[in-house]
Amino acid sequence: MILGSIIAKDETWLLWAIIIVWATVSILLEQRYQWASTISGAIIALVGAMLLSNFKVIPTSAPVYDTVWDYIVPLSIPLLLFSSNILKIWKESRRLLIIFFIASIGTMIGTMVAFMTLNQWIPYLNKIGAMMTGSYIGGGVNFAALSSKFETPSEMVSSTVVADNSVMAIYFMLLIALPSFPLIKKYFKSDYKEKSSPDSQQSYWEPKKIQLLDIAFSIASAVTLVAVSFKGADLIQQWIPQDNIVLTLMVSFFGDPYLLLTTLTLIVVAVWGDFFEKLAGASEIGTFLIYIFFVVIGAPASFVTIITTAPLLFIFVIIILVFNLGLSLIVGKMFGFKIEEILLASNATAGGPTTAAALAIGKGWTGLVGPILIIGTLGYVIGNYAGTLMYQLLSYLG
User: How large is the angle between the packed helices 94-118 and 369-397, nearest 10 degrees?
Assistant: First the structure.
């Protein structure tokens, strides 16, 4: 006889409490303790949920989990995109923008190489490759959106998160160490020699002032954009006939609710840039929603599945990062980019704007903190497009 979980799938409030409390604990541990920061809050959120489900405390499936996939994930996308004004990005950070695109191309090439190398051994690799393309150009929000869009099995999503975060910890350490390598010092230019003071680092990470209206406008804007995008995508799919390849491509692009959501948010932020620039708290709310997503994808995961699939996914992720950093270094050297610009661009694609800013602060590259934050948020914008394109390519190759 197979016993059910202690908490049943219809005990909605209890499940919401566990999900939200554990997401909060994951963030707390990540910010308070070095060991937790090293393994990342995402892994803590995911593994904690796995333990609870594998030991029959919470169910492996529940309507609450579906709610997170259907509502929380789409809502996080505009909240994290409100800081992505492409007009400002082009005006203020052109050099970083160019090397950022080079690193993004490295991600896409690496994904195709890794797919062709490992496709016969890893199931759903076209979907995982698309998710990792979005993640290694944008970040967790793109990973979540593409996971939901392609309906990737939860156990494969969990295995990918474990592999991704484990390899990323090593990758960040490599990026920190690279400027000190003799070969790097010999062949690459650099503008920075001294570390910034601890005071400047601490002042940068001070809490922001957030008003009630900021929260209200953030949530209202995000919900409206999601509603318009999903309804618009439905209407496009119904109204536009797919009689030829052009119309089919139009429907696949504009009829995709996640791509339409990204596009509309991008346009709105570009048009009303001053309003969204002053809007505090949206990014923090969006990030918290992504942590809730990480808890939920851990719940259906089986330890056995992760143990059998994660090692190959480690190799998959490593190949992507090798091409990302390798292409960035080669092209960066050819066109005279400085080593800090190259490493920050690679970091911004692989880890997102926050980790790139942390690297800039930690290495004393204070003049690049603001620009890399701006450039890094661009990844949120293009990640879903790149991931969707990669899915089409990998499905064709497979």
Answer: 30
Contact between residue 103 and residue 138 where contact means Cβ atoms under 8 Å apart: no
Here the tokens at position 318 are: 């490593």
Segment 147-180, tens digit of pLDDT = 988 989 888 888 898 888 778 768 877 887 898 8
335-368, pLDDT tens digit by residue? 999 999 999 999 999 987 767 876 786 677 867 8
What lies within 8 Å, CB to CB, of 300 at 6+ separation is 53, 60, 61, 65, 154, 155, 158
CA distance 4 to 396: 41
Q: Which of 390, 372, 385 has the alpha carbon at shortest distance from 97? A: 372
Alpha-carbon distance values, 179 to 96, 136, 328, 335, 341 (Å): 17, 22, 14, 18, 11
In this prediction, residue 53 has a pLDDT band, given cuts at 50, 70 and 90, of confident
* 3-state helix, strand and coil shares in percent for the chain, rounded to the nearest 5: 80, 0, 20
Beta-bridge mates of residue 56: none
Neighbours of 85 (CB within 10 A): 24
Q: How far is CA 240 from CA 232, 237, 253, 263, 368, in A?
A: 12, 6, 12, 19, 45
